[in-house]
Amino acid sequence: MSKPRILVTRRWPTAVEAALSEAFDTTLNQDDVALDAAQLRDALLSYDAVLPTVSDRLPAALFEGEAVRSKIIGNFGVGFNHIDIAAAKAKDIVVTNTPGVLTDCTADIAMLLLLSVARRGGEGEREVRAGAWTGWRPTHLVGTKVTGKTVGIIGFGRIGKAFAQRCHFGFGMDVVFYNRSSVDSAEAAHYGARQLPTVEDVLGAADFVSLHCPGGAENRHLMNATRFAAMKPGAFLINTARGDVVDETALIAALEQGTIRGAGLDVYEAEPHVPERLRALENVVLLPHLGSATEETRTAMGMKVMDNISAFFAGREPPDRVI
Ligand code: 8YV
Question: Domain total for the chain?
Fold first, then answer.
């Protein structure tokens, strides 16, 4: 039996590309240029599996018309809001993701953003690099103390919990969270955290609000102008989840008007576009979607995709099936 034909849409860690090439009839993307919609549609028509990432948009239109050949989409990443899951399901296409292996690294990036924005690390770094530092003085780049403050977490899944643990046990913070379903209080206490009934309760209590819920329709613009106004004066927003959870225009207005003190962002509404008005602000720390970007995690993510499609083509249930 011939090996399944698979397409990897971007460059992946070398060890994973080697493993995939060994096990499957694999087409790699040596140039690492993102495929456009027509190329993705062609890929679905001509490969048994397509392995996309967050930079590939797979809307319903790509699954319609002439029957697609792909039977599985092995997404590289835990978030899958770039794939129209209902449209894939309607065509009996299995979709898998890579949960678990990026939990720690994403929680670490959230902590990096929280510390950087509170302590004005980005501003300080820019000043030193520009040769503009004139020397130590008591009033220079004075930020906000982190230790002992209250952090509010929206979405208490794997990453939200890992972030709570860092905040509470690492920085002595009081941790409150909102989660759609109720979390056992003993389990929450394990992470030093306490569930509150509404998003508003969390916003009213927190000095730092950190988003850890999925992107997509149900959480679109969960943070809007009204909710920024409900945050404590002087509070900060951290987003390592998905850009569409935040109304970016409302966020920019809240930052410009001082409704909130600052923001640390790893994700944006229309990546890689980051609005000029946001880039012009000093009270933001902006990262280019680095949540899972460590050698260890990116390799583990790739190997998880490999496990998922290997199981599928061996007639077994893929371990990380989302539909
Ligand atoms: C990934 C992420 O690197 O896994 C996710 O959901 O946000 C990132 O850390 C990216 O999405 C790859 O598809």
Answer: 2
Backbone angles phi, psi at 295, to 5 degrees: -55, -45
Token look-up 């939200």 returns 160
User: Ligand 1 centre from 76 Cα, in Å?
Assistant: 7
Residues 189 and 304 in one domain: no
The sign of the torsion formed by the CA atoms of 37, 20, 84, 99 equals: negative
Q: What is the pTM of this model?
A: 0.97
- Per-residue pLDDT tens over the stretch 32-68: 999 999 999 999 999 999 999 999 999 999 999 989 9
Output the pLDDT for position 1: 75
> Taken in order 278, 280, 283, 287, is the CA torsion positive or negative?
positive
Ligand 1 closest atom vs CA 97? 4
- The domain of 72 spans 5-100+295-313
Q: Is residue 320 part of a domain?
A: no
CATH number for the domain spanning 38: value is 3.40.50.720
Atom number in ligand 1 closest to CA 290: 9
- pLDDT tens-place string over residues 93-108: 999 999 999 999 999 9
55 lines ligand 1 (CB under 6 A): no
Do residue 190 and residue 79 come from a single domain? no
Distance 124 CA to ligand 1 centre (A): 29
Q: State whether the beta carbon of 77 lies less than 6 angstroms from ligand 1.
A: yes
CA of 290 to the centre of ligand 1 (A): 8
Cβ(256)–Cβ(277) below 8 Å: yes
Residue nearest to atom 2 of ligand 1 (CA): 77
pLDDT value at position 120? 98
Answer whether 84's CB lies under 8 Å from 63's CB: yes
The yes-or-no answer on residue 279 being catalytic is no
Instruction: Tell me if residue 289 is catalytic.
Output: yes
